[in-house]
Amino acid sequence: MDKMLEEAVTAIGTPNIALIKYWGKRDPELNLPTNSSISITLDETLNTKTSVLFSDCFKGDRLFINGEAYDLKDTKNEKTAFTAKVLEHMRGLAGTEAGALIVSKNSFPTAGGLASSASGAATLCYAVSEALELRLAPKELSIVARRISGSACRSISGGFVEWRKGSAADGSDSYAESIANEEHWPEVIDIITLIEDKKKKVSSSEGHRRATETSELYQIRPKIADRRVESMEKAIEQRDFEALAEITMKDSNSLHATALDSFPPILYLNDTSKAVIQRIHELNQHEGATIAAYTFDAGPNAQIITLKKHKNKVIDAIGEIISKDRILVVGQGHGPRPLPSSESLLGDMNLL
Ligand code: DP6
Questions:
Q1: Domains of the chain and CATH, by start
Q2: What is the pTM for the complete model shown?
Q3: Which atom of ligand 1 is nearest to the CA of 78?
Q4: Taking a C-beta distance cutoff of 8 angstroms, is the pair 239, 188 a contact?
Q5: HSE-up of 133 (CA within 13 Å, CB side)?
Q6: Beta bridge partners of 175
Q7: Per-residue model confidence as pLDDT tens digits over 51-90
Q8: % of the chain with per-residue pLDDT over 90
Q9: Residue 349 confidence (pLDDT)
């Protein structure tokens, strides 16, 4: 048993926050996006830890997430479906039929619009690749992670990350890469608010589908988003915060406009989210400069992109709306990394 535990791999990975959003798929099977996107990989304040052990002695695979057992044959469940896909793919690459034991733990609420699927999927891909000694390069890992959950492909690399949409029908050129690592502009931080921790009412997968299939407004979005990607690349390169902030807010607003224009409409933002939007514009106006930008994924939780030096001003401003114990300050991260065996989650589970 000790030998098996020694061969187990434990990894930690993190979510990312998109500044230019992935919204709409040109191929839903392969998660190929209609536009390129740019995100910031976050530090380990919010994280997923995953331990993986492969053994020929295991009959089948077992998956535990946050202490709960999942049936990997359940194709209706997003988590099990994506884990099964990774295992099948990676076992094929490694030429093994060994069974897997996977234990994963999120340090934050799943499905609350805080990219737990991106964090979970990126960490899983990395841990499985290491456990099977495949040592896949970031490009390959990004492609595998993308197939599980599109935005996960951006959590494989650190700092500012761009997912180029690509054009190949098989998705071989649709993956994410770091365009500036976490040391390029570490002043940029993300202030995360936990306005609601309930499960999303409409999943992002359904949001992608409904926007592409039913929103007329959506039809003009991919071109606009791709143009913004170019402007954002420049803003990052030149460390131009005002440009970064303005593009970020506009792109978030554009996503939520097409969500509302979908039919039936999707309203991810609630009254608190809207109050945060107002408050950030008031703050910027009061400062006479754009010092903060809000952005929202498929949920009501605001994430405020700002610079370290403005942290307290931003917290004071949104602290009028959201209780301070629901506000987290998060820096930039580097993508998944291995953890020592003393951090293995397999030991806790009494599974072997
Ligand atoms: C609004 O990556 O969750 O967060 O590929 O169906 O798993 P699937 O979708 P997902 O979509 C994320 C959408 C978003 C924007 C973004 O992160 O770019």
A1: 2-184+337-343 (3.30.230.10), 188-330 (3.30.70.890)
A2: 0.95
A3: 7
A4: no
A5: 4
A6: 164
A7: 999 999 998 999 998 899 998 888 888 778 888 988 999 9
A8: 85
A9: 63
Mean pLDDT of the region 187-205: 89
Q: Is 14 in the pocket of ligand 1 (CB under 6 A)?
A: no
Q: Which atom of ligand 1 is nearest to the CA of 31?
A: 5
Measured CA to CA, the distance from residue 322 to residue 275 in angstroms comes to 10
Looking only at the bridges linking them, the beta strands covering 62-65 and 99-106 are parallel
- Which of 68-77, 178-187, 263-272, 282-291 comes out lowest in average pLDDT? 68-77
* 205 Cα–ligand 1 center, Å: 7
Q: What is the rounded distance in angstroms from the CA atom of residue 118 to the CA atom of residue 36?
A: 16
Say if residues 171 and 146 touch (Cβ distance below 8 Å): yes
Ligand 1 binding pocket includes 181 (Cβ within 6 Å): no
pLDDT for position 3 = 45
Strand partners, 50: 11, 104
How far apart, in whole angstroms, are the C-alpha atoms of residue 291 and residue 241? 8
Ligand 1 pocket, 298 CB below 6 A? Answer: yes
Segments of 56-187 assigned E as strands:
62-65, 68-70, 99-106, 160-164, 175-180
Closest atom of ligand 1 to 296 CA is 1
Question: Does ligand 1 lie within 6 Å of residue 122's CB atom?
Answer: no
List 20's β-bridge partners, or say none.
38
